[in-house]
Design a protein that fits this description.
Blueprint (H helix, E strand, L loop, with lengths): L4 E7 L3 H13 L14 H13 L13 E10 H7 L6 E5 L7 H7 L5 H4 L6 E4 L5 E4 L1 H23 L4 H4 L8 E9 H11 L6 H17 L1 H10 L9
Antiparallel strand pairs: 1-2, 2-6, 3-6, 4-5
Bound molecules: flavin-adenine dinucleotide.
Flavin-adenine dinucleotide binds next to helix 8.
Amino acid sequence: MERFRVEVIAKTSNPQQVVYAAMHQDYSEGFVIDEREHWPSEEKCGELIVKHLLAGDRGHYGPLEHPSIVFNCGYFPHSVMQQVRTHRVGISFDVQSNRYTGARIVQAAMGLKDIEEVFYLRPVGYYNDRHGKRYEYTKEQRERDLAWCLEAAKRYQQLLAEGVSEEHARGIIPFDVRQHWVMSVNARSLMHLLDLRWKADAQLEAQKLCDAIWPHFQSWMPAVADWYFKNRAKKSRLAP
Ligand SMILES: Cc1cc2nc3c(=O)[nH]c(=O)nc-3n(C[C@H](O)[C@H](O)[C@H](O)COP(=O)(O)OP(=O)(O)OC[C@H]3O[C@@H](n4cnc5c(N)ncnc54)[C@H](O)[C@@H]3O)c2cc1C
């Protein structure tokens, strides 16, 4: 079971109006907040910003940088965290580092926690290698790899019992230990993240992170998400 989770901690409450206000200030003589009671509804602002900022790919994306959303991403393999953390513009992270925590690994070693809750292994099935060649990841291979994870957890437990620090002992744990993080991102950077990590050649589990982000984006900024889905989603349309 994959167990991946993406939950929303906080978000700008009227994101499409915020984008509208920023866009409107660009060409307004007055101070836009003073006209707040005349701003169109959140829904109407969605239509307006799609029409004036997004349709036609004019590149006027700055107003989309004002609203932001804070996600709690959980149970993803370390490799996904590493890849998502390469994004640095308009996005900020706090990641469980395994320098201070390791109790869950010890609990898995003791049989108190399911080993699969601590380490991620791909499901049994067919995959492609980087040359496009298909191969099968079998039940037997997966069971063997799970046993390896359990063995590593036991060795980790032994090191901690011998007085070794978590920061030191983490060096022997399998690469795809599951990790949790908090990630705040503005709407423009969120679309860029989806551009790069939702496309077919992104790591499968990074695509799953995007699958889990998607419904939150859709309910947060429906008009923008709808435009994104029709025009950019999974199309490898990359910003420069
Ligand atoms: C399929 C795939 C495979 C990858 N493989 C590897 C790999 O093997 N090894 C590896 O190290 N990385 C790899 N990467 C990471 C990639 O090189 C980028 O670092 C990562 O995707 C972050 O995206 P970004 O540069 O668009 O940064 P973001 O922070 O998302 O930046 C947004 C945009 O801001 C601009 N920008 C940001 N920083 C700069 C800058 N310093 N200078 C100029 N403009 C900037 C760019 O226009 C950029 O697109 C891979 C990415 C993908 C999608």
